[in-house]
Design goal:
By secondary structure, the chain is of the alpha+beta class. 24% of the residues lie in helices and 33% in strands.
């Protein structure tokens, strides 16, 4: 991959975005819920598939969550698989992440 790649948080759109050479290549949608960052969907444009951009996106998004001190809930299957394959991120997963879809009452 010889693109200039950048990952940024776009809180207004509730997603982390990855650009390649200044063009939007993909995003990871999230919701902030009960003090957690709930990842719901990851998508990379067809023309950017197979270049490792989704992994780079999730890596940087998880690093941002760690820097902010916010636990994550990997509801997106790609994020869940990424964490499974990269045990250094398992400590970020909220302990009670199963079923966290609604705010606590």
């Amino acid at each position: 991959m010889d693109h200039k790649v950048e990952v940024t948080d776009n809180p207004d759109a509730k997603r982390f975005e990855i650009t390649a050479d200044g063009r939007l290549a993909g995003f990871a949608e999230y919701h902030r819920l009960t003090g957690r960052l709930v990842f719901t969907h990851t998508e990379v444009g067809e023309e950017f598939e197979g270049q490792g951009l989704a992994s780079r996106l999730i890596h940087d998004a998880l690093d941002a969550a760690r820097a902010e001190g916010v636990p994550v809930v990997p509801r997106c299957p790609f994020v869940a698989r990424y964490i499974e394959r990269h045990p250094e991120y398992r400590d970020l997963v909220a302990g009670d992440h199963t079923g966290v879809a609604q705010p606590s009452s």
